Every structure is written in structure tokens, then in C-alpha cells.
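quick one, 188 residues, struct below
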Amino acid sequence: MLRRSFIKSVFSNLVLLLVPRWMRGQALNASPGASATLNEIAQVVLPSSLGSGQMQQVAASFQRWIHDYPAGADAGYGYGFPHPRVLGPTPAAHYAGQLSQMDAAAATKGAAFAMLSNADKRAVVEDVLAQAGISAVPAHPTGQHVATDLMSFFYNSSSGEDFCYNAAIRGDSCRGLSNSGERPKALS
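---
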């Protein structure tokens, strides 16, 4: 049994070595307008109270996360799991097609996605998500759709939690024991 697990892990890691790094996470970098379209999607799906600058930062962070996604990497054991978990393939495999689909849907409204009004952009995003059968934001980016994955990336991040609760929770950092009994400070 151990030999089979060892051979399986060797071959799965060997595949990662044979696939060039430039091929991983290329879905959002495939077309020159992908980054601009992602910024426009962020303007639609993220809360407007973030402001345009912070929405662009979230979109850029999401793009970096996709580019650096370590498919096949050890994800640790987790609570109650006797076997280590491994990250699956990148969720960005279909993002380029989804961005093209959104641009095509925008073209039916008479302009490029970036040139549409906010109401028309929202309508395009809602139509595309309805066609894909997506009715909820996943717990983590799954690859179902780039718009919901962007929302999931933001809302499940430390800054997203801080935004939702309007408090400096800083979920990805340790506050230490000295102030662990205190409530997080309000952001505004």
C-alpha cells in the first residue's frame, strides 16, 4: 500500500515538472484585454463602498493568486484528516473562455464590456451567471465562473472579512495572547 502511494505521488509530481510553469495560470493572461475586463467585473461584483482603487487592487491580487497557484502542492492535513490534502488543478482553466463569453454578451448590447454602463455590465454578469446555473458564491475559487471566484477570493480573504464586519479582525495574522480577549477595533 505504501509503495502504491509513493509511486502515485512521484508520478503526479513528475507531471508538474514536465508541464512548463508558463502554462500554469495563463488563462487570465491569454488575451491582452483580460486584465481590463477583470477590473471591470470587479467594479460590478464587489461592493461599491470599497472604491475603484481598492477594487482594482483586489482584481490584481486575484490575478497574482491565479498566476502563482501551486497545483498539486501539499495543502496540509486539516483538522480530522489522517491523510495530507493536495491542491487540485488551477481554477483558472476556463476563465479565458468565460471572459470571452462576457465580451460577446456585451457586444449584443452594442459595445465592449468596458464601455457599457454599470447597469448593463451588471445585467451581462447576471445573465452569464444564470446561464452557467450559478446561484451562490462558492467557499473558495472553484473555476465555475471568474465572477463568482473573484467574489469568493475577496470575501474569504482577511481584508474581505474585515470589510464585512467593519472591524480589524486580521484573520490571516495572529494578534497574540496579550490582547486576545479584546474585541477587534472598528475600521471606521
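The CA atoms of residues 115 and 183 lie 44 Å apart.
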